[in-house]
Structures are given as C-alpha cells and as structure tokens.
Design a protein that fits this description.
10 helices
Length: about 280
C-alpha cells in the first residue's frame, strides 16, 4: 500500500492564502489606477498620457475574442493559440541553443584560466551590444524569417547563462574537487560529477534570467519578416492603431513568460529530486 500523504496544516493553508492575496493585490490596484487614469485623463511622468490607453474592459473583451473568437469576428479572432505556439517555439528553440553552448563554455571558463583568457574578451565585448543593433546586420547576413529571430533570441539568451555558469563553477569549493581526485575521478568526471552539480544554483538563476530575456527579444525578432507570433501581432496592431490589441499582446507575452519560468522551475525541482537548487 502507498503511504498516505501528510494532511495539510491549517497554518500552511493560511500562508498559501495570504501569499495568493498579496500576489493579486498589486495587479488589481494597477487595473484600478489604469481605469481611473483614463477617466480623469492623468498625465504621468515621462509624458505618459493615460487618455490614449484603452479601457481595461475593452482589453478584456479583445483578449477573449483573440483567444476564443465570437465577439469581433475580425482577422485576429480566435488566433491566440496559433500565435502563442509559434512564439513559444521560437523562444524555447533559441533558449535551448543558447543553453547548450553557454553552460559547458561557462563551466570551462570558470575552471580553466586558458579557456577564460581565450573567450572572456570576446564575450565582454559583444555583451553590451543591444539586440536592436544586430537587426540590420542580421537582415543582411541571414535575411528575414524564423532563422533571424532564432539568432537574435539565442544571442541575447547566451550571455546571462554563460555568466551564471562562470560564477557558479568558480564558487565550487576546492576541497570537493580534491576529494574527487583522491578517489580516482578523472578530469572529465570532476567536471560532470562535481563542478556541474555544485554550480547548478547559479546556472539555474542564469537560465531563468535568460528565458525571461528571450521573451523580451521575441518582439524585436518577430518584426524581422515574421507574420505569425505574438510579437508580429503587436507590430501589426501598431500599424493599424489597435491599442487594445497591443495591450493584449503584451499581456499574453507576460503570461507566457511567467508560465515558462514556472515550468522551468518545476523541471529543475523534478530533476534535482528535492535538492535546494531553487528557492
């Protein structure tokens, strides 16, 4: 027979309810300020004119129509899932490409001075260049379409991961490495069995930052000759002056980024089998 799960304590339930309440407080307050700002035509710092924003109710109707249709019956009705799938595919593809290169490179840079001396100048030279500056060059050398978008996402996602891996591998206690070597572990085994697990918390933090940045760069990447995607939808909505659809696209990207971060955390907790990689 399977062991019974321990009952949830009332204190834990109250703590969960309190956390959920605090988590919804700020969004509700933001929506109220958003509505009042339009009604009273507030002008905020940086020249933000609230009167030009759509009402929250209009955005909610557009979001429902974008997801399920049946309200406006235009070219965007019921198209959310197609655009979301296309954008998520690009984000995760670029993110995985960046992670596959950045994690091993960062660990090697953190452990070996020669590798660090070889790659560190180039990484720190390219890292400050924004993704927007790469767009003209990408259009010339790659062209328009998915490949250009994947390149921009992978390039932007690369740097947080490699920096996290470098930091984590340098913080591995030397005693762990010496102990593994005394037990006859090979040099490659030290990297895979000691350095990589000990560096995992810093690598996970870099991966989380990188995944969020991938969703940020998505909008820029999908303006490069892409017709299907959340970023492409926002660009088209800008051209036809659909501010409600622009806000809906922003909300969808924010929600997708949040859910992908939760999915990444869940995957690492599953792989770590309860070890404290993520708080």
């Amino acid at each position: 027979m399977r062991p019974r799960r321990a009952p949830v304590r009332p204190e834990a339930r109250r703590a969960a309810a309190r956390t959920a309440l605090l988590g919804t407080l700020l969004p509700v307050l933001a929506v109220l300020i958003w509505h009042w700002g339009i009604v009273f035509e507030w002008q905020l710092p940086f020249g933000i004119r609230m009167a030009f924003l759509p009402y929250p109710g209009d955005v909610a109707l557009t979001l429902w129509d974008f997801a399920f249709g049946g309200i406006k019956n235009d070219a965007f009705s019921g198209e959310l899932w197609i655009h979301l799938a296309a954008s998520a595919g690009r984000v995760f593809s670029g993110f995985l490409i960046a992670a596959a290169i950045a994690v091993p490179l960062g660990i090697l840079m953190g452990r070996y001075r020669a590798v660090n001396a070889l790659f560190d100048p180039a990484i720190n030279l390219l890292r400050p260049i924004p993704a927007t500056a790469w767009v003209p060059l990408v259009l010339l050398i790659i062209g328009i379409g998915d490949q250009a978008t994947l390149f921009l996402i992978a390039l932007s996602a690369f740097f947080p991961i490699v920096l996290g891996a470098i930091s984590g591998s340098r913080q591995v206690p030397q005693r762990l490495i010496e102990g593994a070597q005394m037990l006859g572990t090979s040099r490659a085994g030290v990297i895979t069995k000691v350095v990589l697990p000990a560096s995992a918390p810093a690598i996970v933090n870099g991966l989380r930052i990188s995944l969020g940045l991938a969703w940020v760069v998505l909008v820029l990447g999908e303006t490069v000759g892409v017709r299907v995607g959340l970023g492409a939808t926002i660009s088209l909505a800008r051209d036809i002056v659909r501010t409600d659809l622009i806000v809906v696209g922003m909300i969808c990207i924010g929600a997708a980024g949040f859910l992908s971060d939760r999915l990444l955390i869940w995957a690492f907790r599953l792989l770590s089998r309860g070890r404290p990689l993520i708080k």
